[in-house]
Design a protein that fits this description.
Layout: H1 2-15, E1 54-64, E2 69-80, E3 86-92, H2 103-110, E4 127-134, E5 137-138, E6 141-144, E7 147-156, E8 160-171, E9 173-174, E10 182-186, E11 189-194, E12 200-201, E13 204-205, E14 209-210, E15 225-234, E16 238-241, E17 244-245, H3 248-251, H4 254-259, E18 285-295, E19 300-303, E20 306-313, E21 316-323, H5 333-347, E22 355-360, E23 365-367, E24 370-373, H6 380-389, H7 391-396, H8 409-425, H9 437-442, H10 448-462, H11 479-482, H12 484-500, H13 502-516, H14 523-534, H15 539-547, E25 554-561, E26 567-574, E27 582-588, E28 593-598, E29 610-611, E30 624-630, E31 635-640, E32 660-664, E33 677-688, E34 692-703, E35 707-717, H16 728-731, E36 737-746, E37 754-763, E38 766-776, E39 781-791, H17 795-798, E40 813-826, E41 829-840, E42 848-861, E43 864-877, H18 895-899, H19 915-924
Parallel strand pairs: 1-15, 9-10, 21-22, 22-24, 28-29, 32-33
Antiparallel strand pairs: 1-2, 2-8, 3-7, 3-12, 4-5, 4-8, 6-7, 10-11, 11-19, 13-14, 15-18, 16-19, 17-18, 20-21, 23-24, 25-26, 26-30, 27-28, 27-31, 33-34, 34-35, 35-36, 36-37, 37-38, 38-39, 39-40, 40-41, 41-42, 42-43
Helix pairs in contact: 5-6, 5-8, 6-8, 8-10, 8-12, 10-12, 12-13, 13-14
Amino acid sequence: MIKNIYIIFLLLLWVFPCCSQEFGSLLTPGEYRRKDNPYYWKNRKPYEGYWQQDVYYKINAVLDDKTDIIHGKEELTYWNNSPHAIGYVYFHLYQNAFQPGSYFDNVSLNSSRPLKFGRYGIQKKGTEVISTKVDGNELHVELDNTILKVYLPRPLQSNDSITFLIEFRTYFEEDCGWRRMSLFSVDNVKHYNIVLWYPRIAMFDRHFGWATDQDLGKEYNGDYGAYNVWLTLPNNYICDGTGLLVNREEVLPADLREKLDINNFRNKPWGEPSSVIIPYDSAATKTWKFQAENVHDFAATADPTYRIGEINYKGLQVVALAQESHAAGWQNAALTALQIIMFYEKATGEYHYPKIIVADAGQGMEYPMVTLDSEFDPYYKYVFSHEIAHQWFYGMVGSNETYSAVLDEGFTQYLTVFALQKFIAEGEPLNFPESSKYISRFTKNYDPYYKYSLFPYLEKALNKRERPLNTHSDAFDDWYQYRLVYYKGATMLFNLQYVLGDSMFFKALQYYFDKWKFCHPYLQDFRDAIIEYTGADLNWFFDQWLETTKTIDYSVKSVKKINKNVNYEIRFHRKGEMQMPIDFTVISKQGMRYNYNIPNTWFQKSTKDTIMPKWFGWGKLYPDYKAYVNIPGGIKDVVIDTTCRLADINLLNNSKKFPYTLKLDGMLDNLPDNRNYEIKYRPDFWYNGYDGVKAGIHFNGDYLAYYHKIRFTLWYNTGLLSNKFILPEIAHKHAPFSFELNYRTLFIKRSNDKTLDIALKYLDGLQYLKLGIEKDISENHNLLFYFKSLYRYGYLDNVYLLYPDEWETGKFNNSINIRYGYEYYLKKGGGLIILQMKAPVMSDFYNYSYINSTILNRYNLWKLTLKSRLFGQYGITGCRGIPIESNLYLSGANPEEMFENKFTRSIGFFDNNFKCARLCRLYST
């Protein structure tokens, strides 16, 4: 049914002609500054006295596919609208980040994530500026890696302009990781993503003056203006990019366009090599001419195997570019992109550009009117939703995303979740049905808010891997931590929606977008815009979410009946440091639901819920609150925030009843459930030569995979199929039951980077206790401190062992252990360094201490991985010596270490060189 609706919709789109643009469809870009440009900042200043700079780029570039070099000439007209005279300017040369000795190389090495360099990068060739002239005169320049400082021949006065003539070369590299200006092979031809490729003038604004951040692989920003770009490519390439293609009939005549239509390849098997539609001629080229206004960058993508899907709707050109070998999975790409734009226009504001491109380009990245994507239908809905959302919060609202990435990635992630929720609401799948009934039964479905926003934020909050959202994008320790701006940023907006209510939130968001589109806001401007629209003091909200790492944790402390008239006192407690208004629901014993709202300030959102007196408090101020309700029939349960939008880090205390689930364990990877303590069970069978078949049951229990993680297995030791070398007189003297219990949890109070670890076992003749504390010092450094006690009562306990003579009985082997681990990364591999110290404690049986070191290294050589292990140990023993089971063995792991591996802790079905039989004879004597 949905498919039929799509087909009808597509036919209607083609029947109705597109409307002409109000401004800028084919105007000379130099007229970007005209008074009839509705998007030019001077015609719609966000406030009186605001200013920003203007640019007009004319670029003529030739791509040599034999050398993978772009040769370009750039004519840049730059208008100084600031009140200041300017004596010099700065340009970004982004591709210089990917060379030895660069700032990005340095931070990557110090983060143990070394960069890969290609043939040009190793020669320190990224973007080379050959000449920089004004009025025919060469200018003095200073190069500092990705920033080029250019001294002007005379100060550029306020309200004056200057035109630069720049000649440059930029080098493509293949398979160089973070380098977004990418080159890769498709069906024996080259694919080029032509991005971040030309000298781009840095922003000069009211906040920073010059924004001269070195490129460290994060985000980018620039001034709005207009572009005329001519790209000359080999004749067989299909290209599209930012702006309108003004020579379409020349480079894509009707007959060629018909051959390239994506519908021609609807039934082509996925991955089958592409056909050749335009034969390659090494001497022939085509020039693709683009023109764009109201943009701050230009990007393009080119591939001989691109096939084109296209929709024209109300003046908007929606273009899908898919490699022919992927065309079958991209049939609905243009329509999907149009749907997403419609979703966002309703939530945020109108899409003001004349074109949008979704390109099968092997990555996920955004540029004005261009998104570089991957995947296939329906999986590409996520990447489309995310990259298209950037057209609002990066494209049309031009925040300095290098400085305040949350204004870009956080807002974009919010819209991504919004679009995915809309797809689900309209019955459209986000992935294929599961391949089997078993997988379908045990695979969870998640709301996109939880999967793509709330849970990733909670994971970082629980691990204390946070920074305040108002952090420079380059100041995050690593990429894992940087992703916080995506997830916490989106979660912040969902919680602002929770505070304001849906209607006011979307109106406030639209007000911010409309006020700041085609301008350059900062976080304070966003805060001010929301407060201006709502008329409410929301500084408490923004201060917490943007400037701190405080978390939300409310709990239902008690429910008490206070008189015979079914009046109840419900006591809430704020355990977290962050304050929020809270909604709560009371469920009566008759099943009736009563909804309430507790404001935390004078502001009250529009709601049908019963409004309670405000709870004004934070930190040590009023951590407790009493709500009085009248519930006929009595209270069955009280639940805080049944919508689960509130980013509470611990929902186990959000209700009167302890929430848990008990389910059969399907052994599939799923996200943890933040609403319940999850308990899973499954049968467990194992075997050793003395107990025979061990039939048992295994339980897993945890909350969010971090708190109160319990692993418990109980076995009944049947004796069936026991080792034939066990003597009959002792064959049935094994323990009837054995168990293994492990408990692990993060410390809930403040120090969530510390973990408590407890293990208790009565297993295979060993009584085992372990108590430890583990601390993640950083991403690469880990410290573990633990006490361990081992005890075997007598010879019968040694019957289990592969080497029964090599474990002492009747003596407690108690030790204190300290283990330090450091994980490192190399260009072609990495490894782990372990340093461990051990000494006896609470024992009169032994007197020793030792320290050892292990270096595990891996090296990737072509398609092979070479692994090595280097071990060294130094120890001191006293008169009482060291337990034989803890000694150093040249043959490998000692018996104590072998016990930790379920495959080596005990004998199997076959005799182990008659050692077990020898021990049994010793016992019988």
